[in-house]
Design brief:
159 residues, Mannitol-specific EII, Chain A, 5 helices, alpha/beta, six-stranded mixed β-sheet
Length: 159
């Protein structure tokens, strides 16, 4: 699975100002709905909020992976937002979240959903990846960081 197939430059934003978890999820919903034809901003937001009600998608170390199922999606969709300043996201370590990678999957994609979540969790567990993502304001550079990691992981697993 190539993460590069799930995220595009038009679904990456840097230096976003947000005041709360709700506002950040609204921003992600808007970003995805304007970058993917045929998906509704409200449906995206409702899916992300419903998942957050089950428990925070904050991982710790300033990272969150909001995710949910999207009936109108025919493929898995990802978006990335780097916040200007961290926000409370109910992360287990209590640290503010400033890097979010959202994931939306069609209703019947459970295996792919879990694979992508595992890849993202592994990627964000690497301090050097988090540092690189925080140190740039360039969406293209962020896209490269995200996609190089998944490509490197795939090459290693194929050997």
């Amino acid at each position: 699975m190539q993460f590069a197939n799930l995220i595009t430059l038009n679904r990456i934003e840097c230096g976003v100002s947000a005041s709360s978890k709700k506002r950040t999820l609204e921003r992600i919903s808007h970003l995805i709905s304007t970058g993917v034809e045929g998906v509704d901003q409200n449906e995206i937001f409702d899916s992300l909020i419903a998942r957050e009600k089950l428990g925070s998608t904050g991982l710790g170390k300033g990272i969150a992976i909001p995710h949910g199922r999207l009936k109108s999606a025919n493929q898995t969709i990802a978006a990335f937002i780097q916040l200007e300043k961290g926000i409370d996201f109910d992360a287990p370590d209590g640290e503010p979240v400033d890097l979010l990678c959202a994931l939306l999957v069609p209703p019947n994609c459970s295996d792919e959903h879990l694979e992508v979540l595992a890849l993202l969790s592994e990627m964000f567990s690497k301090p050097e990846v988090r540092d690189k993502l925080r140190s740039t304001q360039d969406p293209k550079a962020i896209h490269t960081i995200l996609t190089q990691f998944s490509s490197a992981e795939n090459r290693e697993s194929e050997q």
